Amino acid sequence: MEKIINLMIILFLVSSCATMGREDRIQEAEAHYKLGVAYSNEDKVQKAFVEFHKAYELDPRNKEVLNALGIIHLLQFDEPTQAIGYFEEAVKVDPEYSEAYNNLGYAYQKAGDFEKAISYYKKALSNPTYPTAEKAYYNMGFSYYRLGKFDSALNSFKEAIKRAPDLSLAYLGLALVYNAKGKYGDASTAMTQAIKLSPVYRGDREKAAQDFAVKKLGAKGYEENDYRDYLEILKY
What we know:
Blueprint: H1 2-41, H2 45-58, H3 63-76, H4 80-93, H5 98-110, H6 114-125, H7 133-146, H8 150-163, H9 168-180, H10 184-197, H11 205-218, H12 221-233
């Protein structure tokens, strides 16, 4: 009996140490994650990437760390396949993590799979507590636009604007859709509103035109076509 009691005490102490170790790792992972966010805000991409990876090694089930690594692979390294893996892990940890579903959609959108992208945007939007639903509606609008589903694209951009009336990018999306539908007056109106609301252009059409022209030179594929169309709409 005494041996059994002693064994139970040892097991309890080992379990307690393991628990404390786990808590320490989680706290350290959180510290690395916060440092990574700080580096990201300073546009120090590699340093942010290193800190996020340190956090991941300590706590591989931290959904925010997984999402952050996915974002860097997607937006900074242009590696949508690697990004998708991290986003998928994030939503496994939290099936209600709308931000990661939105990012999954954008990763598939970047990879050219617009139907799959839309399915993930809808998954993000199925959560009524998603605080930035306008992002998913805006992104979904572009996926519909790429598929030539202009009415659905129009509705998506309008839903984004309902939730964020100052979202200038959504008005740029509207301009593209109206232009594709041959509604040139509406396209011009949407473009004017986009430039007015933009924190960069602040209503300056000439500045917008110059910026579009420069970005068109560095763009390719769909994005190059978008900038070409923006410049055309500015002439209306």
